[in-house]
């Protein structure tokens, strides 16, 4: 009886708007606090007729912009550009590909962007069903977490055919309006971690 009484008290408390607001706020803060440690969401697509094992050397795509943050890019490169290039170079070396200045097997190009995003987390009622309501007011409250998402797209282009062979995209929560060095290595590592395609994917 005492167990059932305690459970009823807990259930009664959790159905109160102020309790739901407190729980929702703690969840929102928890999500925000661990945003930068979230996993990198990665997708890729590729030409299934390509023998990726034949690629041994690479170079940056000739028309790759030297400054990705809107600066003149004449005599210097931006911090973000250097971070992405360093991360890509490190990952390509791990893959056993050698960077060359002339006649590469593949060219590598990339693009980046940072956007404002929202994450909506539903509350659940006493029967286990989610419900969405009217912001923080009223019983049906939906916590919304604001965060910044950094996206990096990496293209691998067949140098001889001048055609796209592989494209990988990675997105993760970032701390600021740019992608830090640590975040650049984390996102690029996640993307190129899926290159080359596995034998059961390529050439089918």
H/E series, N to C? HHEEHEEEEEEH
Number of helices: 4
| Low-pLDDT runs | 2-37, 130-138
Strand order of the largest sheet: 1-8-7-4-2-3
Overall mean confidence score, pLDDT: 74
Largest sheet: 6 strands, mixed
Structural class: alpha/beta
Radius of gyration: 24 Å
Strand content: 25-35%
> Can you tell me the overall shape?
globular
First and last CA, distance:
65 Å
> Approximately how much helix is present in the residues?
25-40%
Number of strands: 8
Structure description:
There is one protein chain. With 204 residues, this protein is an alpha/beta fold. It contains four helices and eight strands. Strands 1-8-7-4-2-3 form a six-stranded mixed sheet, covered by helices on one side. Strands 5-6 form a two-stranded antiparallel ribbon. Helix 3 (79-94) runs parallel beside helix 4 (181-192). It starts with a helix and ends in a 12-residue tail after the last helix.
Short description:
The protein is an alpha/beta fold and 204 residues long.
Features:
204 residues, alpha/beta, two-stranded antiparallel sheet, 8 strands
How do the helices and strands line up, and which of them pair or pack?
Layout: H1 2-14, H2 17-33, E1 41-46, E2 57-60, H3 79-94, E3 98-99, E4 106-120, E5 123-124, E6 130-131, E7 144-158, E8 163-174, H4 181-192
Parallel strand pairs: 2-3, 2-4
Antiparallel strand pairs: 1-8, 4-7, 5-6, 7-8
Helix pairs in contact: 3-4
């Amino acid at each position: 009886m005492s167990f059932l009484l305690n459970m009823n008290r807990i259930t009664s408390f959790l159905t109160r708007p102020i309790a739901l607001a407190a729980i929702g706020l703690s969840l929102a803060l928890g999500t925000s606090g661990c945003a930068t440690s979230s996993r990198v969401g990665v997708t890729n697509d590729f030409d299934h007729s390509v023998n990726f094992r034949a690629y041994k050397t690479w170079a940056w795509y000739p028309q790759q912009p030297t400054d990705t943050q809107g600066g003149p890019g004449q005599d210097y490169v931006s911090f973000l550009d250097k971070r992405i290039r360093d991360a890509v170079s490190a990952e390509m070396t791990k893959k056993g590909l050698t960077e060359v200045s002339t006649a590469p097997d593949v060219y590598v190009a990339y693009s980046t962007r940072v956007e404002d995003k929202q994450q909506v987390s539903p509350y659940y009622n006493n029967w286990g069903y989610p419900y969405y309501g009217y912001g923080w007011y009223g019983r049906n409250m939906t916590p919304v977490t604001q965060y910044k998402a950094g996206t990096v797209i990496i293209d691998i282009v067949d140098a001889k055919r001048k055609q796209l062979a592989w494209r990988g995209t990675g997105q993760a929560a970032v701390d600021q309006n740019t992608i830090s060095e640590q975040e650049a290595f984390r996102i690029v590592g996640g993307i190129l971690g899926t290159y080359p395609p596995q034998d059961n994917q390529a050439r089918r």
